[in-house]
Amino acid sequence: MSRIIAGAAGGSTLNSVPGNLTRPTTDRVKEALFSRLDAFNVIAGARVLDLYAGSGSLGVESGSRGADSVDLVEFDAKASAVCQRNADLVNSVAGRKVVSVHRSKVESFLDRAADDARWDLVFLDPPYPLDEPALGAVLAKLVPHVSEGAVVVVERSSRSPEPEWPENMERFAEKKYGETRLWFAEPGVDAAEAVVAAEAGGAADAAAEKD
After folding, report:
1. Which of the residues 20, 140, 194, 208 could staple to 166 if both were Cys, CB 3.0 to 4.6 A apart?
2. What is the mean pLDDT of the chain?
3. Average pLDDT, stretch 37-53?
4. Mean pLDDT lowest for which of 26-40, 75-89, 100-114, 185-199?
5. Helices 77-94 and 57-64 sit at what angle, rounded to 10 degrees?
6. How far apart, in Å, are the Cα atoms of 112 and each of 60, 77, 102, 156?
7. How far is CA 123 from CA 92, 93, 109, 133, in A?
8. Which residues contact 9 (CB under 8 A, 6 or more apart)?
């Protein structure tokens, strides 16, 4: 069974989704992934988005390790219920609602996201049948909602081709672990500049409202 590896809820056993509906990230891959993310210094205080969350393993691990907020997005009813149980585990240890669960299709969730919604760390572990153009379309929807300096992690089969990165998202690393390959991407220069401009504009508007 999978577990939370480290942090406030470290050692806790996670609930798993019954059947073969989901493909959970193994503890070996998860440990290697979070070791790298720790080196990037992107977890503590981060706003985290876990798309195609499955059991929510990656998102709740982030919550245990000090993320400020975590959004788990999962459409399947059984998997979403498991996400909620795992979220409750971390929230109980944290003493506040760190992890929120959204039962939604990923595309719909991103379409509904507020214009100023930003995440610092994003996980995508889509089902293998999702083809590259469809994954590329999801990544394109994500671009306006990643913060400057954000890290986007895509988990795919080691036999899958590199994702079709949209404009303003750039791959900066990849790593293979057996049958799993992780792709790491970040917002391109244009996207980062757009985020800074939008945040500066929002701050200016807020200041104007106070005057």
Report:
1. 140
2. 90
3. 97
4. 185-199
5. 10
6. 23, 20, 12, 26
7. 23, 23, 14, 18
8. 60, 63, 64, 89, 90, 93, 94
